[in-house]
Each structure stands twice: as C-alpha cells, then as structure tokens.
Amino acid sequence: MNDDAMSVTFDGASALFTQGGFEPAVSLLHVGGPVVAILIVMSVTALTIILLKLWQFSSLQLGSTQFVDGALAHWQAGRNGAALALLKSSPNPVARVMAIAINGCGQLGAAESTVREEAARVASAELEKLRSHLRGLELIGTLSPLLGLLGTVLGMITAFQQLQAAGSRVDPSALSGGIWEALLTTAVGLAVAIPTVAVLSALERAVERTQHRMEDALTRVFTIGLALSETGDEAKPESGTETLPTPAVLVTEQV
Questions:
Q1: How far is CA 226 from CA 189, 223, 231, 247, 254, in A?
Q2: pTM listed for this prediction
Q3: 25 CB neighbour count, 10 Å cutoff
C-alpha cells in the first residue's frame, strides 16, 4: 500500500470517528480524565449485567405461575404423574421446588421433614442463581457517585492550583471552565448510578416475589389436607387411579 492510499485510509477513518458520534465521547474522556474513563467502563459493565439478568428472568418465565393451581389440582385428585408432568414443562424455579415436594411425598413416600429439607435446599440454590451478579450492580450503583465526587475534588484542586499560579493575572473564564470540567465527573457518576440503582431495585423485587411464591406453593403442597378439611370436600381420584396419601398421613403412618 502506497503513501497516498494510506493517507486516504487514515483520513476516512478519522472522518468516520468524528462524524459517527464518537467525538462527544472522546471529548468527554479528554475533559473528565481517567475518572470518567472508569465510570464509562462501569456503565458498560452495569448494562451488560442488566441485559444478562433480564434474559435470565425472561427465559425462566418468572412472571408466569399458572401452573401452580393446575399442579395442586392434580395433586389433590391423586394424579401425581400429571402434576409432575405439568411442573416439569415449566422452566420456572417455583415449579422445580413444587416437583421436589410432590415427588417426595407422593411417589417416594419420604417423611415430610425430609422432603421439606430437600425442597428448602433446592429453593435456596434457585434463589442464589437469581441473585447472581446483583451484588455487582449494587457495587456499581454505590461507587459511581463516589468516583464522580472524587473526580470533582481532584478537578477543583487543579483549578485552584492554576488560579494560584496565575497570581494577579486571574482569568475568570479559565477558573469557571476548570470548575465545570471538575463538576462533569460528578454528573457522569450520577448518570451511571441512578439508572443502575433503579434497575437493581426492580430485579431484587422480582427475586423477592419469586421467593414468596416458592414458600406459598410449597406450603400449599404440604397443607393440602387442611385445605380439603376446611372446605369439607374430598378429592375423588379418577377411575383406575390409585389414591396416594397426603403428606400429613405419611408422617402419621411413619411415626
């Protein structure tokens, strides 16, 4: 490649870089210095985590819990196989916890305390997966404004050093320019922290809601006999289906 071709290539790249929307970012980095560079990296990291968590929550269908009532209806009627099939068709972690309880009490005939302990272990593991990377968002939301404040303090120190060096020949425009450049880092830090904290709060609320649904569904599995006694109805299994004991009956028989 000759010198003229190289010159055309570099000129074209420079024009693309300045005209393609990168010039404001470069100017921001130049004015804000390394603090703004760190904040930009943190904002990209936060955005990546947010997109990852949104994809995870969407793939697990956390907002869909229609399977709970259907599985409990099968469990009441003694159709354990149908209940487990319905629960296994859902990727929701609530469905997995319910499947552990129904399979343990209905088909394996394990003691209720043992089943509860295993279901609690699985629920804890599922919730830990949902909480993964949230601590990173919390850290970014906490450190971003502090880093912005640090950049502002450093910028103010530099501005007043220049003011002192100027002596009697003080230029007010230079001082005001140094101050707004110093305040820029605080603005960037807040711009990173505010949306990060807002999204973090929404994600944490989704995890808390899932935990509540797990506890509620698990309790309903183990107290199905109490619910029947309160309504005065007895669940009648379909013809040809063997009636399996409820968790309370299992515990009484084993004692």
A1: 55, 5, 9, 11, 19
A2: 0.72
A3: 12
CA distance 5 to 141: 47
The pair of three-digit structure tokens given for residue 183, joined into one six-digit string: 């305040």
CB–CB of 195/215 below 8 Å? no
For 18, the token pair is 């300045």
SS (H, E, C) 102-144: HHHHHHCCCCHHHHHHHHHHHHHHHHHHHHCCHHHHHHHHHHH
Dist CA 103 CA 115 (whole Å)? 9
Which of 2, 7, 47, 35 lies closest to 186, judged by CA? 35
C-alpha pair distances (Å), 46 with each of 108, 146, 189, 203, 219: 45, 16, 13, 13, 36
pLDDT in tens, 108-124: 667 888 888 999 999 99
Give yes or no for a contact between 121 and 190, defined as CB atoms under 8 angstroms apart: no
Q: How confident is the model at residue 146 (pLDDT cuts 50, 70, 90)?
A: very high
